[in-house]
Design a protein that fits this description.
2 copies of one chain form a homodimer. Chain A is of the alpha+beta class. The first copy, chain A, has a single domain, classed as START domain (Alpha-D-Glucose-1,6-Bisphosphate, Chain A, domain 4). Chain A contains 3 helices and 7 strands, in the order βααββββββα. A 7-stranded antiparallel β-sheet of chain A has the order 1-7-6-5-4-3-2. The longest helix of chain A has 23 residues. The radius of gyration of chain A is 14 Å and the shape is globular. The two termini of chain A are 25 Å apart. In chain A, 41% of the residues are buried.
Chain lengths: 147, 147
Amino acid sequence: MADILHRIGVTASPDAVYTALTTVDGLASWWTEDTEGDAGVGGVLRFRFGPPGGFDMKVLETEPGRQVLWEVVDGPEEWIGTRVRFDLKREDDFTIVLFRHEGWKEPVEFMYHCSTKWATFLMSLKAVLETGTGEPAPRDVRISNWH
Amino acid sequence: MADILHRIGVTASPDAVYTALTTVDGLASWWTEDTEGDAGVGGVLRFRFGPPGGFDMKVLETEPGRQVLWEVVDGPEEWIGTRVRFDLKREDDFTIVLFRHEGWKEPVEFMYHCSTKWATFLMSLKAVLETGTGEPAPRDVRISNWH
Protein backbone atom coordinates (compact mmCIF):
# COMPACT_ATOMS: atom_id res chain seq x y z
CA MET A 1 0.00 0.00 0.00
CA ALA A 2 1.15 3.52 -0.75
CA ASP A 3 -0.20 6.91 0.24
CA ILE A 4 -0.15 10.42 -1.15
CA LEU A 5 0.54 12.97 1.59
CA HIS A 6 0.27 16.76 1.57
CA ARG A 7 0.24 19.61 4.08
CA ILE A 8 -0.92 23.18 3.52
CA GLY A 9 -1.73 26.04 5.85
CA VAL A 10 -4.63 28.36 5.12
CA THR A 11 -5.16 31.78 6.70
CA ALA A 12 -8.85 31.07 7.22
CA SER A 13 -10.74 29.49 10.11
CA PRO A 14 -11.11 25.72 10.51
CA ASP A 15 -14.85 26.25 9.97
CA ALA A 16 -14.24 27.98 6.63
CA VAL A 17 -11.92 25.19 5.48
CA TYR A 18 -14.41 22.58 6.69
CA THR A 19 -17.20 24.24 4.72
CA ALA A 20 -15.04 24.16 1.57
CA LEU A 21 -14.65 20.40 2.10
CA THR A 22 -18.21 19.49 3.05
CA THR A 23 -20.49 21.45 0.74
CA VAL A 24 -21.07 21.07 -2.99
CA ASP A 25 -20.45 24.78 -3.57
CA GLY A 26 -17.32 24.72 -1.46
CA LEU A 27 -15.86 21.72 -3.28
CA ALA A 28 -16.78 23.25 -6.65
CA SER A 29 -14.79 26.37 -5.75
CA TRP A 30 -11.41 24.60 -5.65
CA TRP A 31 -11.55 21.06 -7.08
CA THR A 32 -14.00 20.86 -9.96
CA GLU A 33 -16.87 23.10 -10.90
CA ASP A 34 -18.73 19.95 -11.94
CA THR A 35 -19.46 18.70 -8.41
CA GLU A 36 -22.82 17.23 -7.42
CA GLY A 37 -24.33 14.98 -4.82
CA ASP A 38 -24.85 14.66 -1.11
CA ALA A 39 -22.02 15.90 1.11
CA GLY A 40 -23.50 14.48 4.32
CA VAL A 41 -22.22 11.35 6.02
CA GLY A 42 -23.38 8.32 4.00
CA GLY A 43 -23.94 10.48 0.92
CA VAL A 44 -22.08 10.21 -2.38
CA LEU A 45 -20.33 13.14 -4.05
CA ARG A 46 -19.77 13.06 -7.81
CA PHE A 47 -16.75 14.96 -9.11
CA ARG A 48 -16.37 15.23 -12.90
CA PHE A 49 -13.53 16.59 -15.03
CA GLY A 50 -14.96 16.52 -18.56
CA PRO A 51 -13.97 13.72 -20.97
CA PRO A 52 -11.46 12.08 -18.60
CA GLY A 53 -14.37 11.26 -16.27
CA GLY A 54 -14.11 11.64 -12.55
CA PHE A 55 -14.64 10.17 -9.13
CA ASP A 56 -17.53 9.22 -6.87
CA MET A 57 -16.76 9.53 -3.18
CA LYS A 58 -18.82 8.16 -0.33
CA VAL A 59 -18.64 10.40 2.71
CA LEU A 60 -17.58 8.15 5.60
CA GLU A 61 -16.91 10.62 8.39
CA THR A 62 -17.10 14.33 9.05
CA GLU A 63 -16.26 16.21 12.21
CA PRO A 64 -16.84 19.97 12.08
CA GLY A 65 -13.58 21.90 11.92
CA ARG A 66 -11.60 18.68 12.39
CA GLN A 67 -11.90 15.93 9.83
CA VAL A 68 -13.37 14.72 6.56
CA LEU A 69 -13.03 11.16 5.26
CA TRP A 70 -14.20 9.82 1.89
CA GLU A 71 -14.00 6.44 0.21
CA VAL A 72 -13.73 6.23 -3.57
CA VAL A 73 -16.64 4.14 -4.81
CA ASP A 74 -16.35 4.81 -8.56
CA GLY A 75 -13.71 6.18 -10.91
CA PRO A 76 -10.39 4.92 -12.26
CA GLU A 77 -9.63 1.37 -11.20
CA GLU A 78 -6.55 2.46 -9.21
CA TRP A 79 -8.70 4.79 -7.10
CA ILE A 80 -11.54 2.47 -6.19
CA GLY A 81 -11.41 1.50 -2.53
CA THR A 82 -8.80 4.13 -1.69
CA ARG A 83 -9.64 6.76 0.91
CA VAL A 84 -9.16 10.51 0.96
CA ARG A 85 -8.68 12.09 4.36
CA PHE A 86 -8.46 15.71 5.43
CA ASP A 87 -7.41 16.41 9.02
CA LEU A 88 -7.63 20.00 10.21
CA LYS A 89 -5.94 21.74 13.11
CA ARG A 90 -5.06 25.27 14.13
CA GLU A 91 -1.40 26.25 14.33
CA ASP A 92 0.08 29.75 14.50
CA ASP A 93 -2.37 31.81 12.43
CA PHE A 94 -3.10 29.01 10.00
CA THR A 95 -5.58 26.22 9.64
CA ILE A 96 -3.37 23.28 8.79
CA VAL A 97 -4.77 20.70 6.37
CA LEU A 98 -3.12 17.30 6.56
CA PHE A 99 -4.20 15.48 3.43
CA ARG A 100 -3.86 11.77 2.80
CA HIS A 101 -5.02 9.78 -0.22
CA GLU A 102 -4.37 6.35 1.19
CA GLY A 103 -4.46 2.74 0.14
CA TRP A 104 -3.03 2.73 -3.39
CA LYS A 105 -2.23 -0.89 -4.23
CA GLU A 106 0.88 0.01 -6.24
CA PRO A 107 2.90 3.20 -6.83
CA VAL A 108 1.89 3.31 -10.51
CA GLU A 109 2.75 6.27 -12.73
CA PHE A 110 -0.82 7.53 -12.36
CA MET A 111 -0.18 7.85 -8.62
CA TYR A 112 2.81 10.11 -9.32
CA HIS A 113 0.50 12.27 -11.46
CA CYS A 114 -2.29 12.34 -8.90
CA SER A 115 0.13 13.34 -6.15
CA THR A 116 1.24 16.46 -8.01
CA LYS A 117 -2.29 17.20 -9.13
CA TRP A 118 -3.58 16.97 -5.55
CA ALA A 119 -0.91 19.49 -4.53
CA THR A 120 -2.11 21.98 -7.12
CA PHE A 121 -5.74 21.47 -6.08
CA LEU A 122 -4.85 21.96 -2.41
CA MET A 123 -3.11 25.19 -3.38
CA SER A 124 -6.38 26.06 -5.15
CA LEU A 125 -8.25 25.39 -1.88
CA LYS A 126 -5.81 27.70 -0.09
CA ALA A 127 -6.22 30.35 -2.79
CA VAL A 128 -10.01 30.39 -2.84
CA LEU A 129 -10.15 30.79 0.94
CA GLU A 130 -7.47 33.47 1.06
CA THR A 131 -8.21 35.43 -2.11
CA GLY A 132 -11.69 34.40 -3.21
CA THR A 133 -10.41 32.83 -6.43
CA GLY A 134 -9.52 29.17 -6.78
CA GLU A 135 -8.42 27.14 -9.78
CA PRO A 136 -10.98 24.32 -9.99
CA ALA A 137 -11.38 22.25 -13.16
CA PRO A 138 -11.83 23.18 -15.96
CA ARG A 139 -9.60 26.14 -14.99
CA ASP A 140 -7.13 23.91 -13.16
CA VAL A 141 -3.36 24.16 -13.40
CA ARG A 142 -1.99 22.05 -16.23
CA ILE A 143 0.96 19.98 -15.04
CA SER A 144 1.67 17.66 -18.00
CA ASN A 145 0.33 15.83 -21.08
CA TRP A 146 -2.07 14.06 -18.72
CA HIS A 147 -3.34 17.51 -17.79
CA MET B 1 9.49 3.10 4.31
CA ALA B 2 7.46 5.76 2.51
CA ASP B 3 8.06 7.71 -0.68
CA ILE B 4 7.03 11.06 -2.11
CA LEU B 5 6.04 10.74 -5.77
CA HIS B 6 5.39 13.39 -8.39
CA ARG B 7 4.99 13.61 -12.16
CA ILE B 8 5.20 16.71 -14.33
CA GLY B 9 5.52 17.23 -18.07
CA VAL B 10 7.67 20.02 -19.44
CA THR B 11 7.54 21.39 -22.99
CA ALA B 12 11.32 21.44 -23.23
CA SER B 13 13.80 18.81 -24.39
CA PRO B 14 15.10 16.06 -22.10
CA ASP B 15 18.54 17.67 -22.45
CA ALA B 16 17.21 21.01 -21.19
CA VAL B 17 15.53 19.36 -18.21
CA TYR B 18 18.66 17.32 -17.52
CA THR B 19 20.77 20.50 -17.55
CA ALA B 20 18.39 22.09 -15.01
CA LEU B 21 18.97 19.07 -12.75
CA THR B 22 22.71 18.65 -13.16
CA THR B 23 24.24 22.13 -13.10
CA VAL B 24 24.51 24.57 -10.23
CA ASP B 25 22.98 27.36 -12.31
CA GLY B 26 20.17 25.12 -13.47
CA LEU B 27 19.31 23.99 -9.94
CA ALA B 28 19.49 27.57 -8.67
CA SER B 29 16.92 28.60 -11.28
CA TRP B 30 14.09 26.52 -9.80
CA TRP B 31 14.94 25.12 -6.34
CA THR B 32 17.05 27.57 -4.38
CA GLU B 33 19.22 30.43 -5.55
CA ASP B 34 21.65 29.44 -2.81
CA THR B 35 23.01 26.33 -4.54
CA GLU B 36 26.70 25.45 -4.56
CA GLY B 37 28.93 22.46 -5.00
CA ASP B 38 29.89 19.82 -7.50
CA ALA B 39 27.08 18.46 -9.67
CA GLY B 40 29.16 15.62 -11.12
CA VAL B 41 28.83 11.99 -10.05
CA GLY B 42 30.45 11.61 -6.63
CA GLY B 43 30.20 15.34 -5.97
CA VAL B 44 28.17 16.99 -3.23
CA LEU B 45 25.60 19.73 -3.90
CA ARG B 46 24.70 22.14 -1.10
CA PHE B 47 21.20 23.61 -1.18
CA ARG B 48 20.41 26.33 1.37
CA PHE B 49 17.14 28.06 2.26
CA GLY B 50 18.20 30.79 4.69
CA PRO B 51 17.66 30.30 8.44
CA PRO B 52 15.86 26.95 8.12
CA GLY B 53 19.08 25.48 6.74
CA GLY B 54 19.11 23.10 3.83
CA PHE B 55 20.30 19.85 2.35
CA ASP B 56 23.55 18.35 1.11
CA MET B 57 23.10 15.83 -1.68
CA LYS B 58 25.71 13.41 -2.97
CA VAL B 59 25.28 12.79 -6.69
CA LEU B 60 25.09 9.01 -7.08
CA GLU B 61 24.10 8.60 -10.73
CA THR B 62 23.47 10.73 -13.78
CA GLU B 63 22.52 9.61 -17.27
CA PRO B 64 22.18 12.42 -19.82
CA GLY B 65 18.56 13.07 -20.73
CA ARG B 66 17.44 10.06 -18.64
CA GLN B 67 18.14 10.04 -14.92
CA VAL B 68 19.55 11.82 -11.89
CA LEU B 69 19.92 10.21 -8.47
CA TRP B 70 21.05 11.91 -5.26
CA GLU B 71 21.51 10.72 -1.69
CA VAL B 72 20.92 13.12 1.17
CA VAL B 73 24.12 13.24 3.23
CA ASP B 74 23.30 16.22 5.46
CA GLY B 75 20.19 18.14 6.49
CA PRO B 76 17.14 17.43 8.65
CA GLU B 77 17.37 14.09 10.40
CA GLU B 78 14.35 12.73 8.55
CA TRP B 79 16.05 13.38 5.21
CA ILE B 80 19.46 11.83 5.87
CA GLY B 81 19.91 8.63 3.94
CA THR B 82 16.84 9.21 1.77
CA ARG B 83 17.28 9.41 -1.99
CA VAL B 84 15.94 11.81 -4.56
CA ARG B 85 15.44 10.44 -8.05
CA PHE B 86 14.44 12.12 -11.30
CA ASP B 87 13.61 9.85 -14.24
CA LEU B 88 13.09 11.53 -17.60
CA LYS B 89 11.33 10.30 -20.72
CA ARG B 90 9.73 11.79 -23.81
CA GLU B 91 5.97 11.44 -24.25
CA ASP B 92 3.73 13.36 -26.65
CA ASP B 93 5.40 16.79 -26.85
CA PHE B 94 6.53 16.73 -23.23
CA THR B 95 9.56 15.66 -21.30
CA ILE B 96 8.05 13.73 -18.43
CA VAL B 97 9.77 13.98 -15.06
CA LEU B 98 9.01 11.13 -12.67
CA PHE B 99 10.18 12.30 -9.28
CA ARG B 100 10.68 10.14 -6.23
CA HIS B 101 11.97 11.14 -2.79
CA GLU B 102 12.32 7.68 -1.38
CA GLY B 103 13.16 5.97 1.84
CA TRP B 104 11.43 8.05 4.54
CA LYS B 105 11.45 5.95 7.71
CA GLU B 106 8.04 7.21 8.85
CA PRO B 107 5.26 9.32 7.26
CA VAL B 108 5.85 12.18 9.72
CA GLU B 109 4.08 15.52 9.35
CA PHE B 110 7.27 16.99 7.87
CA MET B 111 6.94 14.47 5.03
CA TYR B 112 3.44 15.78 4.25
CA HIS B 113 4.94 19.28 4.07
CA CYS B 114 7.88 18.24 1.90
CA SER B 115 5.57 16.43 -0.52
CA THR B 116 3.57 19.58 -1.23
CA LYS B 117 6.70 21.71 -1.29
CA TRP B 118 8.35 19.38 -3.83
CA ALA B 119 5.26 19.75 -6.04
CA THR B 120 5.57 23.53 -6.02
CA PHE B 121 9.30 23.33 -6.77
CA LEU B 122 8.70 20.91 -9.65
CA MET B 123 6.15 23.38 -11.01
CA SER B 124 8.92 25.97 -10.67
CA LEU B 125 11.21 23.70 -12.73
CA LYS B 126 8.47 23.46 -15.37
CA ALA B 127 7.98 27.23 -15.31
CA VAL B 128 11.62 28.20 -15.68
CA LEU B 129 12.04 25.90 -18.67
CA GLU B 130 8.81 27.01 -20.35
CA THR B 131 8.74 30.71 -19.52
CA GLY B 132 12.25 31.58 -18.35
CA THR B 133 11.07 32.43 -14.82
CA GLY B 134 11.06 29.97 -11.96
CA GLU B 135 10.19 30.40 -8.30
CA PRO B 136 13.32 29.24 -6.46
CA ALA B 137 13.88 30.10 -2.80
CA PRO B 138 13.83 32.78 -1.48
CA ARG B 139 11.06 33.60 -4.00
CA ASP B 140 9.38 30.21 -3.51
CA VAL B 141 5.66 29.66 -3.15
CA ARG B 142 4.57 29.83 0.48
CA ILE B 143 2.32 26.90 1.35
CA SER B 144 1.89 27.20 5.15
CA ASN B 145 3.32 28.40 8.48
CA TRP B 146 6.30 26.12 7.79
CA HIS B 147 6.80 28.14 4.61
